[in-house]
């Protein structure tokens, strides 16, 4: 699936432009991270991808179709959105019903729904919680319930808004696995995040937003090498990356093993 933004603008009532002429193309199955300070326009941007918000200027095309030509409910079949706050998305009496609701609305048959419930529950770690009321889940489980409910509809694009917020290490590991599974299934995963360690570990393409515009867009190693630009968006690279940059290493690294390897290579080169 291909999402094209052409000179996209969005103005909330009585405010400045939240998006100011964004040109962007997202396609394929390589996971994409969108980062930037609060108020940079990240959430406003992705809410245009399935019509939750409509452009006040410019265009949004999904596989060549203008976003305004279909309702948000219609777009949700192909572009799924997982809200930052699970309580904004959960409203039924059990996890199972949350999983079944969306697929039924789009006409998925009962046999397929049943198979998908089992598979998705395992993927998000809620196999033993299918008959539990969502509001009796832990905050982490609620988050995965909303993720499961969206993936149940089998969309081509899945958008995560701050999925690591409130997660522990186990939750982040599960989330990384889900992103990898979506990639293997040929789906495009777009994620907003303030967690730079998670971003650099799981996303090869990074888009940096600043004041409603795209400041940087490219491979994560290239983006995080541009420290002056990152400061403009108040983005701080992961600690090991900053240490490597402070040590003058030419290579942009995101892990301790990569840091050690880069030091070794520079020493060998000098020797």
Automatic annotation (TrEMBL):
Q: Which UniProt keywords apply?
A: ATP-binding, Cell membrane, Membrane, Nucleotide-binding, Translocase, Transport
Using the record's annotation, list all stretches that form the ABC transporter domain.
3-236
Q: Name one GO cellular component term.
A: ATP-binding cassette (ABC) transporter complex
GO molecular-function terms, A-Z:
ATP binding; ATP hydrolysis activity; ATPase-coupled transmembrane transporter activity
Q: Which Pfam families match?
A: ABC_tran (PF00005)
Q: What InterPro entries does this protein's entry cite?
A: AAA+_ATPase, ABC_transporter-like_ATP-bd, ABC_transpr_CbiO/EcfA_su, ECF_ABC_transporter_ATP-bd, P-loop_NTPase
| Location of this chain's protein in the cell | Cell membrane
Where does the protein principally reside? membrane
- SMART domains linked: AAA
Name the protein family.
Answer: Belongs to the ABC transporter superfamily.
- Name used for this protein in its record: ABC transporter
Organism, by scientific name, is Bifidobacterium imperatoris
Taxonomic placement: Bacteria, Bacillati, Actinomycetota, Actinomycetes, Bifidobacteriales
